[in-house]
Write a structure and sequence with these properties.
Length: 479
């Protein structure tokens, strides 16, 4: 345990409920966080972890109609005594969806806007911006338009915007979710050094605890009903283990890509590439942040207009990195049933297996990030497309949800469905994938048997990947 001092966050029997909900999201939560501590909030998807963060930074209830009870103190003062925006000079937040906190077009303008909001003198801004760009390794992105960045790069920009305020407390909502494994490990090491240098207090929501090694001092665990079920010293966690499964690849082609390329505003997003996926094949698309993975997925699905080449497939379904883009109805169950291709019994089965039963009547925009992702996955599985492209489906998912997703993919591939999955979760990739497609700097490296990739450390390092831990990698049998 690292030396700590006085409490900076104090909760005593804190409960929170949205007015439209029958039951509370958080139930009588009590704990202290001392200055300089590193604390992780864990628990199943949808248990209220992000809501708890929003209480700590005064986003809730200041920006919603939520009902709060109990005692919550920030730096020794009742939370409701802080003026709107005042606490955010001392408590900075990196949200789960970094797009939600950007207001300006470029990285430099976003950082400057953050400083303007806390009234930093203009002659001090330049040194602060330069310093935080160097600290976060974003020097080369200073004038880049944020919306052209990858999800992982946006996460780093959001972290820079938080750190530029020189806060006392840093709140992180799944900071590794969109980072490639190499960048994720770098971020953990960087946060470790930063915290040692500054004494910053860090509170993070996280599912992938195996990536953090011994970073945290304490683990505060919430149960599914929003109650505190554990407050204990943190111990390193093993990676999730998935069942072994035989190959189900068939001989017929499900997707054929020939010399596909995309140019946007005159810029080549990825060079012409070609590959074939067969019926029943599960392929993982992997590579560094910003390498063109999501752009390729959008091109395959017709969202991006191609500048050359062809895609041959009988039908492609798409689960985007931001699942909200798919939602068309006002309830979770209606979203799964929207296509009309699945029977009511199938919809109910999907709803239960994806652990969406308790929120089946909730609006899909009102549920947690991990639940939104499962809603989008369920809707696409219900649509019965022969090929399904998923962009980061494991983000925001606890161990139980990941295992169920693995099982659903396993069942569908046995029926001949084909999956192309973008993921930075090496354990999930090693368990689920028959093949791995690697891309770097917009150039397609090639398609490999999965087992060849996990044992080729030079190939992994070149694509910012790390060997999977504790996974049951298998050798698929296909030509």
């Amino acid at each position: 345990m690292r030396p700590v001092s006085e409490p900076v966050l104090s909760l005593e029997k804190v409960s929170f409920r949205f007015p439209e909900d029958d039951r509370a999201t958080l139930n009588e939560i009590s704990f202290l966080v001392n200055s300089g501590e590193r604390v992780v909030l864990s628990g199943p998807s949808g248990c209220g972890k992000s809501t708890l963060l929003y209480l700590l930074n005064r986003l809730y209830p200041a920006n919603c109609d939520g009902i709060v009870s109990g005692s919550l103190e920030l730096f020794g003062r009742p939370s409701d005594s802080w003026k709107p925006g005042e606490i955010n000079r001392r408590i900075a937040t990196v949200f789960q969806d970094p797009d939600a906190q950007f207001c300006m077009p470029t990285v430099e303008e976003e950082l400057a806007f953050t400083l303007e909001n806390i009234r930093i003198p203009r002659d001090e801004m330049e040194s602060r911006i330069t310093g935080v760009l160097e600290l976060t390794g974003l020097e080369g992105f200073r004038n880049t338009v944020i919306q052209t960045l990858s999800g992982g790069q946006k996460q780093r920009v959001a972290t820079a915007c938080a750190l530029i305020m020189h806060p006392d407390v840093l709140l992180l909502d799944e900071p590794l979710a969109h980072l490639d494994p190499h960048t994720a490990l770098e971020l953990v090491r960087w946060l470790d050094e930063l915290q040692k240098q500054t004494g910053l207090t860090i509170v993070a929501v996280e599912h992938r605890l195996d990536l953090w090694n011994e970073f945290f001092d304490r683990e505060i665990c919430l149960g599914a009903d929003g109650q505190l079920i554990g407050d204990r010293p943190f111990t390193p966690k093993p990676a999730i283990r998935f069942p072994e499964r035989p190959s189900a690849i068939r001989s017929e082609s499900a997707m054929s890509v020939e010399s596909l390329s995309v140019r946007i505003k005159g810029q080549q997003i990825f060079a012409p590439l070609s590959f074939v996926l067969r019926a029943g094949e599960v392929a993982v698309l992997a590579g560094p942040n910003g390498s063109g993975k999501s752009s390729l997925a959008k091109a395959l699905c017709g969202i991006y207009k191609t500048s050359g080449g062809k895609v041959h497939a009988s039908g492609i379904g798409y689960v985007p990195q931001s699942p909200e883009f798919l939602f068309l109805t006002s309830s979770v169950r209606d979203e799964l049933a929207f296509s009309g291709f699945a029977s009511p019994n199938s919809i109910d089965d999907l709803t239960d297996r994806l652990r969406l039963g308790e929120i089946r009547n909730a609006h899909p925009f009102s549920v947690s990030h991990g639940q939104k992702r499962r809603v989008a996955i369920g809707a696409m599985l219900a649509d019965n497309r022969p090929v399904i492209v998923m962009d980061e489906p494991t983000s925001g998912q606890d161990a139980g949800a990941l295992l169920e997703l693995f099982n659903l993919i396993e069942e569908r591939r046995r029926e001949g469905n084909t999956f192309l999955i973008i993921t930075h979760d090496m354990e999930f990739a090693a368990a689920a994938a028959d093949s791995v497609l690697l891309i770097k700097d917009g150039v397609f490296t090639g398609k490999y048997r999965a087992q060849e990739v996990w044992t080729d450390h030079a190939l992994l390092a070149a694509h910012h990947l790390v060997p999977p831990k504790g996974a049951n990698a298998h050798e698929p049998a296909f030509a």
